[in-house]
Amino acid sequence: MICLSQFALGRAPPMAKPSVFRAEHPTALDLSPNPISHGAASSSRRRDLVFVVNPRGASGRTGKEWKKLLPYLRSRLSVDCNICESLTSGPSHAINITREAIKEGADAVIAVGGDGTLHEVVNGFFSAGKLVTNHNRESAHSTALGLIPLGTGSDFARTFGWRNDPYEAVERIAKGVRSWVDVGVINGETGEPHYFINVADLHLSAKAGYYASRYKRFGNLCYVIGALQAFMGHRNQDLRVKVNEGEWEEYSQVTALCIGNAKYFGGGMKITPNADPRNGYFEVVILQDFKWYDFILKLLKLYNGTHLSVKNVTSRRVHSIEVEDISGGDSIYVQSDGEHLGFLPRKLCVLPAAIEMIC
Fold first, then answer.
1. H/E element holding 175?
2. Number of H helices and number of E strands within the chain?
3. What whole-number distance in Å separates Cα of residue 121 and Cα of residue 93?
4. Is 126:68 a contact under the CB 8 Å cutoff?
5. Of 24, 32, 141, 182, which shows the fewest CB atoms inside 10 Å?
6. CB-based contact 194:125 (threshold 8 Å)
7. Sequence-separated (6 or more) residues with CB below 8 Å from residue 293
8. Which residue(s) pair with 254 in the sheet?
9. Residue 286, SS3?
């Protein structure tokens, strides 16, 4: 197994010729699917873990917290694993790191940061519409996804009841329990498919997320600022929706449409409360004809997940959904896991049990 090295900030790594995994950071983790059944040779094999760190996340707080965490991580995971620390240097870098790690046979790729870093690592599990695989086709293990939440939102972690506590995350990694999780895939009229693990959304909420990304230095307050800015000049739109390859349906005056693989977005808003990333379905929640004051009056319900009983809110469970703007325009924002993807039309499908995750 070769390592992706410890990347310097602001400098792109030589991905084609990464350096060898360093053994001076041993760890106690066996991520193989059936560690007891592989015999003595397998049990003595050093496990390879790649930690993908966004040091600039949360206005630089992620990098500082990671440095504090490293001594504990090394001491806690102390027997038979190699640790590779890979610092991202810009957008999409985590995707490339993850793909290379999987090809070289990493036992786990662990996102260190917020939902944005996790989003890129998840996209690194795929390439050209297919799962990335180990170069060694005879390998007995697959690469698992891991998470140490250190970002601004860390909304995906909330679905599992995980606190924004990196030391607890290290304990999960030490135990090495795996569970298959679903992944969403988004296709447009052109370009490569895009993947998400948390929530994709359209129109007002996506526009709010687009603006919020400019104010990450303010922490979770960025979501409030983004929402206020998105409301300026906002108009509800009529949308055409097709569910599970059925007939087209029209939804009038849509304010926001959210497709949840998991439950939370926007810094703790439980927007798709019935979503479960292990059940093979999305939960789709549609808000219609909401005014600015509706969000103020119903904010508590939106955050605690009791808004499904509110007038003009509908929910349904789906395998796939296509959405178009009836007007034929290109002004309906689309985002997934807080990342701006462009505009409608889009088709979203769930990929059941797509990857294993350390839970």
1. helix 166-175
2. 10, 17
3. 9
4. no
5. 24
6. no
7. none
8. 237, 288
9. strand
Q: Across the strands, what pairs with 313?
A: 287
Residues 57, 149 contacting (CB under 8 angstroms): no
Q: How far apart are CA 194 and CA 310, in angstroms?
A: 32
Q: Which residues of 73-107 are buried (b: 16+ CB within 10 A; e: fewer)?
A: beebbeeebbbbbbbbbeeebbbbbbbbbbbbbbb
Q: Could you tell me which of 117, 121, 13 has the C-alpha nearest to residue 65? A: 117
Residues 115, 201, 325, 337: which is the catalytic one? Answer: 115
Q: Which among 105, 256, 278 is positioned nearest to 181, based on CA atoms?
A: 278
Q: Is residue 44 very low, low, confident or very high in pLDDT (cuts 50, 70, 90)?
A: low
Tokens of 209: 């997320």
How high is the mean pLDDT of the chain? 86
Specify the pLDDT at position 18.
36
Question: pLDDT (tens digit, 9 = 90+) per residue, 309-342?
Answer: 999 999 999 999 999 999 887 789 999 999 999 9
Please report the beta strands in 289-337, taking only residues with DSSP state E, as ranges in sequence order. 313-318, 320-325, 333-336
Question: Distance between terminal CA atoms of the chain?
Answer: 24
Per-residue pLDDT averaged across 53-61, rounded?
A: 88
Among 101-110, 124-133, 149-158, the range scoring the smallest mean pLDDT is 149-158
Per-residue pLDDT band for 195 (boundaries 50, 70, 90) equals very high
Token pair of 328 as six digits: 């034929």
Q: Is the dihedral of CA 147, 152, 156, 161 positive or negative?
A: positive
Q: What's the pLDDT at 24? A: 34
Q: What is the number of alpha carbons within 13 Å of residue 28 lying toward its C-beta?
A: 12
Please classify residue 176 by burial: count the beta carbons closer than 10 Å to its beta carbon, then call 0-12 exposed, 13-18 middle and 19+ buried: buried
The tokens describing 53, both together, are 């760190």
In Å, how far are 233, 289, 323, 332 from 236, measured between CA atoms? 10, 7, 15, 10
pLDDT tens figures, 156-194: 999 999 998 999 999 999 889 999 999 999 998 777 899
For residue 347, pLDDT beyond 50: yes
Is 330 designated active site? no
- Report the pLDDT value the prediction gives residue 133, as an integer from 0 to 100: 94
Q: pTM here?
A: 0.86
